[in-house]
Specification:
Its EC number is 2.3.-.-. It contains 5 helices and 7 strands; from the N terminus they run E-H-H-E-E-E-H-E-H-E-E-H. The chain is α+β, with helices and mostly antiparallel strands and 176 residues long. Helix 3 packs across helix 4.
Length: 176
């Protein structure tokens, strides 16, 4: 799935030592489309959830050439009467614009496919986030529509609903 021009991104399972990355990503710039920076207590809770998320999803540290460039994951989410995978990512500012998020999204789709639990992976970037919407398009997601979503709790905003069909992509790959 990764073309020769894509960066050689790898996904490393989230570990106890990755808390620093949450702190680096908790800036006004990186959380502009997520309701703003979180409190220190919320970061600790998020880190704990990431560490415990091992059977119904995963969170990873993205690396390129041995350097940590961001994080990505997938987890279960109730959506429109069913359970789907949801994905989300954050690439550190100094590494943005290099295709790292697209390469990592493709890798996380492969990881979600191996779970064989849910057919669809959804991403919900805000409609005003051109970078994340471009990642969805370039990684092969299909735009379903848009919705008002509450994230974080108490903060409503308009988001696009991008969907990736793991079964259709697997079937297409088998036919090729």
């Amino acid at each position: 799935m990764v073309s020769p021009t894509d960066p050689e991104a790898t996904l490393e399972p989230w570990s106890e030592g990755d808390f620093w990355l949450l702190e680096r990503q908790n800036t006004p710039e990186m959380t502009e489309h997520l309701g703003g920076p979180e409190t220190a207590e919320k970061l600790v809770d998020r880190h704990r959830r990431y560490l415990l998320l091992t059977e119904r999803g995963r969170v990873f540290r993205i690396t390129v050439d041995g350097r940590t460039t961001g994080s990505i994951g997938y987890w279960e989410q109730e959506w429109q009467g069913g359970t789907v995978w949801e994905t989300g990512w954050g690439v550190l500012p100094e590494f943005q614009g290099r295709g790292i998020a697209v390469a990592a999204a493709r890798l996380v789709l492969d990881a979600a496919r191996t779970e064989s639990l849910h057919r669809f992976v959804h991403a919900f970037p805000s409609t005003g986030n051109p970078g994340s919407n471009a990642v969805c398009r370039k990684a092969g997601f299909h735009l379903v529509g848009d919705s008002d979503l509450e994230y974080p709790k108490g903060h409503w905003s308009r988001h696009n609903d991008w969907r990736f069909d793991l079964e259709a992509e697997a079937a297409a790959g088998a036919e090729a």
